[in-house]
Design goal:
By secondary structure, the protein is α+β, with helices and mostly antiparallel strands. The protein is built from 32 helices and 17 strands.
């Protein structure tokens, strides 16, 4: 189990990790021995004069800096330490003791819609009695606290080094227990249940609540041996390992950045922002921890502004933290960094009220922050009623009220949006702005206005998308988001735009451009385009390009591809506690001719998470393809009995029945999948095709018409509907679909 102290914890590896390097070393020694043997048996001419001896000097490689006891920092940096004491960073994670647990554990019970949890103490230990992974109530010990306000969560020990985050949390403001997922029917069968992989704190949470964290998952034993340097977010979580800095402090030498691998005061704000983004971004890890001094996308894959996570105007929708919002802002473009507004040690704002904003937005029209580009600032009294339309100091008179609206997450945690945007179309504040202004200024379509057309599949959508991508001043995260929309609007222009962005300066854009190009070109035609990306300086870009060429790897893609695809494999191997990584490996092995490893990897994915249906379906497909159809059908049928609410299983069962020639029994399963997940257009489309193929053409047309109302950009639905109309002699209807399609994307090659 992790060790809650301030001492540097030695990384404990499984012996297996040392086997392959040792084997390679032995092979090299054996080869050297053979070479010397052959050389000894070959007569050599003797030189007439002694041969000069070449003296080579090996470069001295400095050992990487190490974590030190955080208390060593506090001796010199007393002001920063005072700010840090008691902060959310310092107290992000603590051992559960009477001093750190404010919640009521006096044998009280909390009843949710599905389960009852009882909280009690055994001496100075804190315990819960709650349904476990089998649905039966059991006693579990609370090991650690998570957070301090406005709520506190608790991490439960369940064995094998696992810590799980309990979904019943303590409201520190109202002094009450509450459930983080009310009304969602969370019980032991639900993926959100505290015992499930989605609530595993080793993978999901602890990295951002500790300093120097390593998950240390052992795939062979299915155990964690997670370690950290110290609890809470300490100095070295942001500045990096401090051993070289301690050495510099003692000698005042000439070490770069005073012994740190990064300079958070670098003129380029990206260094600081990406340091904060390691935790303050919605992202997926690309390994076990991060490497200080590397770019964010060397260690993580941050999300773009997807439908699920952000509103059309880019404001926070799901729990996305701050980075994705801030990356869209004019603030980020002008060089504003997190520490311009927040004290990084106390986490508090640097000034009360509007003071932080007035550093730049003031009557002088000048920025008080030297590193911020003040060009374009207006000299204006932003606190005047003429601007706020409210009396100064009253509610709705503060900058954040209009420019940083927020939402509650985790039940009671209010967070402000950090895009600092002008209120957008559709929200109440924007409508009020229109009433205040006597005339609307003419302007080019904004990103959010274009996105309404693009995601709504409205006339002019393709042109709006292309015009936005043609801009040179679009924030990288918005450009990456729009590139993800290109697949719905193919054309020659779309391909040109995607190809151009393969060379964009921002790694997030290059990564998204690869995905866009792959929707337009067959793999063989991507090889030449991806050449530079296989050597990209950022890992996330290299591995997406390599993976995208897997299907043509047999033709030989060269050492750069080999190295990049090995990196991709190593990323998955570093995430073996996750079912997703095991599925990725199975697909990699299948595509690269290592078929003997596929089934074992898929079964391991299901061991990690029995409810991870993509792995279950892939296993069934693998069994079918290898002559084990009956086993595949039984696998899906048995799981469907247990989880009839799983749309993917219903869909898969329907497809398997169709492949066996039983369309009649397939239709109810396909219909149920479409009903369970109406947002998944593929389910509705396949059901419509099955209806058509079974002779129910009118019903098929009705389903496609309904699908196009929800997803007007769905090209497959449009193509099939036109075909079905023509088959039934409904040419005017077919022409109507065709004309609306031309208004949507006149350059679509399918229209030719």
């Amino acid at each position: 189990m992790p060790k809650p102290d301030n001492k540097t914890v030695t990384h404990r590896d499984s012996p297996r990790r040392y086997f392959y390097p040792l084997l390679i070393a032995l092979l090299l020694l054996a080869m050297a021995g053979i070479w010397f043997f052959l050389q000894a048996g070959t007569p050599k001419p003797q030189p007439l004069v002694p041969a000069p001896v070449a003296v080579t000097t090996k470069p001295v490689v400095a050992a990487p800096a190490r974590m030190v006891d955080e208390q060593q920092c506090q001796g010199c940096h007393q002001a920063q330490a005072r700010d840090w004491q008691g902060s959310h960073h310092q107290l992000a994670m603590q051992a559960a003791t009477p001093q750190t647990v404010p919640a009521d554990f006096n044998d009280v019970s909390f009843k949710s819609a599905e389960e009852t949890t009882r909280f009690f103490r055994r001496s100075d230990e804190f315990w819960v009695n709650t349904p476990g992974p089998d649905g039966k109530p059991a006693d579990f010990k609370v090991a650690y606290t998570f957070g301090i306000a406005p709520l506190q969560q608790y991490l439960i020990e369940v064995g094998d080094g696992r810590l799980q985050a309990l979904a019943v949390a303590w409201d520190t403001e109202k002094s009450r227990w509450f459930h983080l997922y009310p009304g969602q029917g969370v019980n032991f069968k639900n993926p959100l249940h505290w015992s499930k992989p989605s609530q595993n704190a080793n993978f999901m949470c602890i990295e951002c609540h500790t300093t120097g964290y390593k998950r240390n998952f052992d795939a062979a034993t299915n155990r964690f041996d997670s370690q950290w340097n110290s609890l809470g977010v300490g100095c070295q979580a942001c500045h990096g390992p401090a051993s070289d800095h301690v050495q510099w402090a003692a000698k005042k030498g000439d070490l770069l950045h005073a012994g740190f691998a990064v300079d958070l005061k670098d003129q380029d704000a990206t260094v600081e922002i990406e340091t904060c983004a390691r935790c303050h971004a919605r992202r997926a890890p690309l390994g076990d921890g991060y490497t200080v001094g590397k770019r964010l996308m060397d260690d993580y894959l941050p999300s773009v502004l997807t439908r699920e996570l952000y509103a059309l105007d880019g404001k926070i929708k799901d729990e996305v933290f701050e980075h994705g919002s801030f990356a869209q802002s004019k603030m980020a473009d002008k060089g504003v960094r997190c520490s311009n507004c927040h004290n990084p040690h106390s986490n508090q704002l640097k000034a009360p009220g509007n003071g932080v904003c007035l550093q730049c937005h003031n009557t002088a029209g000048k920025s008080a922050v030297a590193t911020v580009d003040g060009q374009g600032l207006q000299a204006k009294n932003y606190e005047a009623p003429e601007h706020t339309r409210n009396i100064a100091g009253q509610p709705e008179s503060f900058c954040v009220d209009c420019h940083m609206p927020g939402k509650f997450y985790m039940g009671n945690d209010f967070r402000h949006d950090h895009s600092f945007s002008i209120p957008r179309a559709g929200d109440k504040v924007s409508e009020q702005f229109k009433l205040w202004s006597s005339s609307e200024t003419v302007h080019a379509p904004r990103y959010d206005e274009s996105l309404v057309l693009i995601r709504g599949g409205q006339p002019g959508a393709a042109q709006a998308l292309y015009e936005q991508l043609a801009r040179n001043n679009l924030p990288a995260i918005q450009r990456a988001t729009l590139l993800a929309e290109l697949a719905n609007y193919p054309s020659e222009q779309a391909l040109k735009l995607a190809t151009r962005d393969l060379g964009n300066p921002a790694p997030q854009v290059r990564e998204s451009a690869v995905r866009a190009v792959s929707a337009f070109l067959p793999p063989a035609e991507r090889v030449a385009l991806y050449g530079p990306l296989l050597k990209d300086p950022v890992r996330a870009v290299r591995i997406i390009a390599a993976r995208d060429l897997l299907s043509v790897s047999a033709q030989g893609l060269g050492p750069a591809w080999e190295q990049a695809i090995t990196e991709y494999e190593n990323v998955q191997l570093s995430l073996l506690e996750r079912a997703e990584a095991n599925l990725n490996l199975a697909m990699l092995y299948q595509a690269s001719g290592r078929g003997s490893k596929v089934e074992a990897q898929l079964r391991t994915a299901l061991l990690r998470d029995p409810d991870f249906y993509p792995a279950l379906v892939t296993l069934a497909q693998w069994l079918e393809a290898n002559g084990r159809s009956e086993e595949a059908r039984r696998l899906i049928a048995d799981n469907l009995k247990q989880h009839p609410e799983a749309a993917l299983l219903q869909h898969t069962q329907g497809l398997m029945l169709i492949r066996s020639g039983d369309t009649t029994n397939a239709l109810p399963h396909l219909r149920e999948a479409a009903r369970l997940e109406p947002g998944n257009g593929q389910y509705s489309f396949v059901w419509a095709v099955a209806l058509h193929d079974s002779g129910s053409v009118d019903k098929a047309c009705l389903q496609l018409e309904d699908l196009l109302k929800r997803q007007p950009y769905n090209r497959n639905a449009r193509l099939s509907l036109i075909q079905y109309y023509l088959e039934n002699a409904h040419e005017p209807k077919a022409q109507g679909v065709m004309q609306s399609w031309k208004k949507l994307n006149p350059g679509d090659p399918a229209l030719k």
